[in-house]
Amino acid sequence: MSVNIPEIFGSMVFSDKVMKERLPEGAYNAVREAIDNGTPLSHENAKIIASVMKEWAIEKGATHFTHWFQPMTGITAEKHDSFIEPAGNGEVIMKFSEKSLVKGESDASSFPSGGLRATFEARGYTAWDPTSYAFVKDGSLYVPTAFCSYGGEALDKKTPLLRSLETFNREALRILKLFGKENVKKVMPTCGSEQEYFLIDKSVYEKRLDLIHCGRTLFGARPSKGQELEDHYYGAIKSRVSAFMKELDTELWKLGVYAKTKHNEVAPAQHELAPVFTSINIASDQNQLTMELMKSVANKHGLVCLLHEKPFASVNGSGKHDNWSISTDTNENLLDPGATPSENAQFLLFLVAVISAVDKHQDLLRISVASAGNDHRLGADEAPPAIISIYLGEELEGILHAIESGREYNAKKKSELKIGVSVLPPIPKDSTDRNRTSPFAFTGNKFEFRMVGSSLNIACPNFIINTIVADELKEFADKLENATDFNTELNKLIKAKIKEHKRILFSGNNYSTEWKKEAKKRGLLNLQSTVDALPLYNQTKNVELFEKHKVLSGSEIHSRMEILLENYSNIVHIEALTAIDIARKHIIPSVLAYQTFLLKSHDLKEKCGVKFSRKMEEDLLGKISELAEKFYESLQKLDLDEKKYNKTWPNLKKAKFCKSVLLKEMQSLRNYADQMELLMGKEYINFPTYEDILYSVKY
Ligand code: ADP
Ligand code: MG
């Protein structure tokens, strides 16, 4: 069946076009003002919008509405209310009031607050975010909202993102004014997030308690064929996967998501979807939607979509490249090198702002992607290391070095590059996109932050990038606004910034051991795990930064740190309990059964007087028994330590214990189990193996 994309695209979205068509002019202008400039809506207008929105939603088949929000749990939350309202005489009317649109009361007590919400103030509220369009899905009208406590503190991932956009816009506009761009009214970061995922057959998933509870396998020997042949990357797409992708695209298009690229990824059963970039708040909401739809559409196809960062050891895990750039309402990409000296100067200013921001706040960028799942990926030579650095490509790095040292850039022309006076040599786009090992790469007209985990909400890395860059822009604007000679001052500033922060630039192989040594020499941070990174969240420098820009208060930062640490511990603790369960209920019985089989075979041969060297049974039994003993020892140790784990410990203590004790022991338990698996007969292994799972979608 063919799909008429222009016809279905955005058909389930209460978009600008729909609003323009359906709202009275006054109400439409008011909502545009709210979207563009944050002007609050009057009650009257909100009333009109709610009523028009309801009529539209009912036409699209909605019977319910929900405030859709992104609590700190990492997934989205929704509570559906029907439109019905008793009308007397046992009849109903369909109602959606201004209040229902704008503000929702919510019992916040079951969502993590990290101590922000005292128990006597368990209520929180959701507030409509008109900058992200409402939509209809599964018979409900979804209203994107921010989620706050009654004290106004952010309890979600969206609020700081929205706040960061305000400060970013303000500071970037100040800079553009200095370049004479008075006509620009709005500056907005843009984002395109490339989403990786695994697809496996539901039947194998249902037999793996670890996948069900933890989203990743806790046991499983390497398959005889993994990703070595590199035959999966960009390979022909199997028909079941293709049918899934087709339906996913169609559903996403209906919801106004610009799903663009789809292909097979490196690991068997791994795939990727990339949308066309859009403004960052919408991109962030749409990525959440994409992840949700991946799961629900997979289910319809008898498949399960795994979004965990490392579902399988021995093959690549999944990430999410966060492509970040800056756009103006006049359609200029501020990270695009221009053709005139002035454009180049402006480009260099924004570029250098990003470079200094990343260098100053390596800790925050690492924190923004810290999670139990992502720890298995970062630094494992399949994803960027935990060390943050920037890749600019040789040409651009060369230009910056020349600027810093005042040397001639172009040897042939013997000219010194003067910012604001001379034209930059052309920077070829292609050559800047080849280093796949860099965590933060400039790719022609955008930066690509490659450390983000596949399951993470991109609101967090993005509000952090927005804030740290806004802070640099503020510093630049403060200096340049008072300059007597703009170009001289700009030259001086850019030179000084390059000198100060060039240590963060690295265009070599980020996986190499030399880089680790070199990075250490340069004084760059190497925060290996979530537990190393998170405690730095509420350092004074960070509290001051976020408070200065009104993105997060000190107590909000503190609560976030606590929530993230607790979340980490909960995940590892559940993994430990699941590993113990699987070891007892599945692995021990199957190992014993296989040993019995070997013994029986051995005895039978002897009884029948078969002449044999006894080699095979004895050899296998010897090996397995030795491993089984170590396995059992390891299990007992894990079991004892799990019992020591105390939920009432402070969050950091819990997290440290989880990392250095529970995770370590789980790994050792797994090692023995995986070695035994490789020796055992297939019918004795009583759950699907890696081979079964990774190749479960056959056609
Ligand atoms: P790949 O990284 O696979 O080579 P690209 O780098 O071409 O692919 O694009 C990856 C993503 O970057 C896409 O989602 C694309 O929309 C996004 N992107 C392109 N330009 C911008 C921009 N100016 N701002 C943000 N994202 C962008
Ligand atoms: Mg990319």
How would you characterize the overall build of this protein?
By secondary structure, the protein is of the alpha+beta class. 47% of the residues lie in helices and 14% in strands. The chain has 22 helices and 19 strands. The longest helix is centred in the last third of the chain and has 54 residues, at 554-607. The radius of gyration is 28 Å and the shape is globular. Residues 194, 321, 448 line the site of magnesium ion. The site of magnesium ion has 3 residues, from loops.
Strand content: 5-15%
Nearest-integer average pLDDT: 92
Helix/strand/pairing category: alpha+beta
Radius of gyration: 28 Å
Distance between termini?
A: 20 Å
Biggest pleated sheet? 9 strands, mixed
Q: What is the number of helical segments per DSSP (H or I, 4+ residues)?
A: 22
Q: What ligand molecules are bound, each kind once?
A: adenosine-5'-diphosphate, magnesium ion
Shape: globular
Approximate helicity band: 40-55%
Parts with pLDDT < 50 across at least 5 consecutive residues: none
Total strands: the figure is 19
Features:
single chain, 699 residues, alpha+beta, 9-stranded mixed sheet, 6-stranded mixed sheet, 47% helix, 14% strand, binds adenosine-5'-diphosphate, binds magnesium ion
